[in-house]
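Lab meeting notes turned into a lecture example. A postdoc, R.K., suggested we walk through two folding results consecutively so the class can see how the record format repeats. The first protein's sequence and structure tokens come next.
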Amino acid sequence: MLIAGCGEGESVADGATVTAYVVAPLCGEAEKKLARNGGEAGDVRVRVSCLPSSESSHKLNLAQIGANARQATEDSSAIAYIGEPTNAASRFSEPILEAAGILQLSQSSGTKAMAEVLEALSQSTGGSLRQSVNDALS
């Protein structure tokens, strides 16, 4: 059985792996939630890619925020971006992620955001997984 993949026009077989990109402060929580779910949602394996911190000395590092968002957009397996922890940081990453159709879950705990992503994936009925997650959670 084939299901549609993450990016436009791609398809992947059951058991494929998709990636949730997670900013540093939320990564540990997201990884724990994913581990409690056995690393999958339905027939799809999910992995977490932890991103470097975008804060130093309580100041936002705009270059790092942009680099983190671009890293997610360059990965065709990306289905969600968990972060940024503040409205100010989200304003810089959102346009980059939005252009690629990647949903950003921000100002949430890593546990809650990962639970939402896993639920959206497990209820996907076909088409693009990236779009299914986006539609379910936006």
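The second example is placed directly after the first for contrast:
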Amino acid sequence: MKALFQMQVVEDPVEPVVAAMRADAELPEDVGSYAAHLVTLFHLNHDDVDKAITEALDKWELNRVAQVDRAILRVAATELLYVPDVPAKVAIDEAIEIAGRYGSNQSGGFVNGVLDRLARAYREL
């Protein structure tokens, strides 16, 4: 989430962001590799990911969604769309937890609703 937030706010290119994630000594190697994989998947498929999120938004436009919530939705949507071995419920629950930690008081419920609609459209729950 932090990497996608950085990319959307500061407009950093994906390559140095991914390299920094892989080199981060505070992250276990498998966590850094998985996070870098998700960021790369989003980068390669951002139009389709954003389209799926937009379809799941109820009377909202993606560019009006808070930056933190948008980054969380993008990570979780990428996981739901392109990482089938992660159960939808796990991806959604993790996104809700992150939204509760980094977003507003309403972020968890908002993220849950959007991802639930997206998951129902694209995956089995």
